[in-house]
Design a protein that fits this description.
about 180 residues; mainly beta; eight-stranded antiparallel sheet; about 0% helix; about 55% strand; globular
Amino acid sequence: DDGWGTGTDADSSVAYANDTLQFLVFRTNFFVWSPSPLEDQSNFHAEVTALNNSTDTTTAFGIMCHLQITDVSYYFAVTPAGQYTIGKSAVAADDVFLTNNDTWANSDQIPVNQSSYRVGADCASNGALTFYVNGTQIASAVDTTYTSGNVALFVWSGEQESGANISFDDFQLTSLP
């Protein structure tokens, strides 16, 4: 749908291409996100199909929720290498991974180098955060720092310059009971 944040500069490009929202990242270890056109959200389930055209298996991508301002949110990240985390970002602070003792982890439930992934996230107003990949629950955490905010999609480039290429399609947002 129209209305997602787009733009291009020397570091990245977020643009509509082939009926998807395509993210290209030209720098290593660079985070780029696109906010949804939806207003403040709380207590919801979000899902999106991520089409993986990346050449770098350390590229991370997924959903952000309860986005307050730039870089203040929760995020649900997966890589084509089968790694994942639920993270929390804050102004002027290092990110905290709320799963796996503050580290990335591998999951045998995440297919390696798949051409597409269906990424899902529950962001409850009571602080419950649940991460899904291809319909399977991968991880959960509880944190009540943020209880509402915008939704966004993101790509975090890995170790390979110009190796991150993810297109998002079929975004859905539904209320949690």
